[in-house]
TrEMBL record:
It comes from Lacihabitans lacunae. Keywords: DNA-binding, Transcription, Transcription regulation. InterPro entries: Homeodomain-like_sf (IPR009057), HTH_AraC (IPR018060), RmlC-like_jellyroll (IPR014710), RmlC_Cupin_sf (IPR011051). Residues 187-285 form the HTH araC/xylS-type domain. The keyword DNA-binding applies. It comes from the Bacteria. This is AraC family transcriptional regulator. It holds the Pfam family HTH_18.
Length: 288
């Protein structure tokens, strides 16, 4: 079955699409679409890929993504093996910038919301307090229809446009340079790394997997991911380490080797570089 990178969401009966997801795991395919998207995880965990960003996600994770921003919520291994204690549960809302007409957000009264939509092109996340507010609105929008649904979405966008406690997800200047024709190639890279990050990953091996020379693959990956392949692998490994630290069941040395690092010194160096804390400082912050 071919992987589809460009994902279209159409609703012939409404200008807003809202879906409640109850699945064994979220869509494992890295994709993008021409819609704005507000997505919240109501239950489950894993690793989140948005543009050039990699992060751990857990219940409550909520983001606002602009059009054509590539993304993927990859659940932890237990969800694919059927050993997770519950299904992956989420709420997602889609709309286009012209769902109320071509020039609606160009009106003077809409300038704050227009700024919000512009910021969403880098992906936006909020504080836990704001996330709870967003989740409440999404649950209301889910059960509303017609004009009431539109009004509630506009109210949510208005509130978010005034909330300054947000964080951009992708780096400044990030732009989607992917083509639909490259879907299968990039999907193979993601799948290979997620499957093998606990062991040594040789450049030759991943290059052969997608039928490219090592030099060509390095250039290709950096141009599209906005980071080197080595940085990509290290971010996934540190993401796994963060999850293990959060479980508070393992020693630092166990976490180091289970995350694919060969030495404690390199593990500590990469952890500090990516998380901006030492593993011990990260654990302490979690406890606080």
């Amino acid at each position: 079955m071919p992987v589809v990178l460009k994902k279209d969401i159409e609703n012939a009966f409404a200008s807003i699409t809202v879906q409640e997801l109850h699945e064994k795991h979220f869509d494992p395919n890295w994709h993008f679409h021409p819609h704005y998207q507000i997505f919240t995880v109501l239950n489950s965990n894993g690793t989140r890929f948005i543009g050039d960003d990699i992060a751990v996600f857990n219940t409550g994770d909520t983001v606002f993504l602009g059009p054509d921003l590539p993304h993927l919520w990859r659940n932890d291994k237990a969800y694919f093996e059927g050993t997770a204690t519950s299904e992956a549960h989420g709420l997602v809302l889609y709309f286009t910038d012209d769902f109320l007409g071509k020039d609606f957000f160009e009106k003077p009264e809409m300038h704050l919301i227009k700024n919000l939509l512009e910021h969403s092109k880098r992906g936006i996340s909020w504080s836990e307090k704001s996330n709870k507010l967003i989740i409440g609105y999404l649950k209301e929008i889910l059960i509303l229809n017609g004009f009431d649904r539109i009004l509630k979405l506009l109210e949510l966008l208005h509130l978010l446009s005034q909330d300054k406690n947000y964080t951009f997800i992708t780096k400044e200047g990030y732009a989607n340079s992917h083509k639909v024709s490259e879907t299968e190639r990039m999907q193979k890279v993601h799948d290979f790394v997620l499957k093998n990050f606990k062991t040594e990953i040789k450049l030759q091996e991943i290059s052969e997997t997608i039928s490219m020379s090592e030099a060509a693959f390095c250039r290709y990956f950096k141009k599209r991911a906005n980071k080197t392949f080595t940085d990509f692998v290290n971010e996934i490994r540190i993401g796994n380490a963060c999850k293990m630290i959060g479980e508070q069941k393992y020693s630092i040395s166990e976490i180091c080797f289970e995350s694919g690092f060969n030495t404690i010194s390199n593990f500590n160096h990469q952890f500090k570089k990516i998380v901006h804390k030492t593993p011990s400082e990260y654990l302490k912050a979690l406890k606080i």
